[in-house]
Automatic annotation (TrEMBL):
The lineage of its organism: Bacteria, Bacillati, Bacillota, Bacilli, Bacillales. This is DNA-binding helix-turn-helix protein. Residues 44-99 form the HTH cro/C1-type domain. SMART domains: HTH_XRE. It comes from Staphylococcus aureus subsp. aureus MN8. The keyword DNA-binding applies. Coiled coil: none annotated.
Length: 141
């Protein structure tokens, strides 16, 4: 059961990544790893601070010590397991792809903003929003 849930989460995760307009591949593995680590550490700290959460609070949420969380944020721990990344993202209410630096904006924030508009727009206005989104996507090609 747990394995099915994990594979379902991974499928959704990679489906989102494949739908992204820009995915940059860095050939040299060491460069890739250091870029991801730097981005992850920075975004993790920014997200934690934005939530008004302390290192200790985040540690409790993910089942790690405050010192371990601090090492994640400083980039001293480079090989994080997928489960750990997922736990951190969940605790911080962000998308794992955002933490990893694979996308510029946290997808969850976009969905949250869209949810706030739900009662504020008429059906005609929603259709115009969707038409504009289609127009923007067509310009990417």
């Amino acid at each position: 059961m747990m394995l099915q849930k994990r594979s379902s989460i991974l499928r959704k995760f990679f489906r989102k990544i494949l739908q992204m307009p820009k995915v940059f591949l860095i050939i040299e593995l060491s460069s890739k790893r250091s870029c991801i680590t730097m981005c992850f550490s920075k975004r993790m700290k920014q997200s934690r601070e934005k939530q008004g959460m302390t290192l200790a609070e985040l540690g409790r949420k993910i089942g790690k010590t405050e010192a371990t969380v601090q090492r994640y944020e400083s980039g001293n721990i480079k090989n994080l397991k997928n489960d750990t990344i997922e736990s951190i993202a969940t605790a911080l209410n962000v998308n794992p792809a955002y933490l990893m630096g694979w996308v510029e904006e946290n997808d969850d924030e976009v969905q949250h903003r869209a949810a706030h508009l739900e009662g504020e727009l008429t059906d005609d206005e929603w259709q115009r929003v969707l038409d504009y989104a289609d127009y923007i996507r067509s310009k990417r090609k």
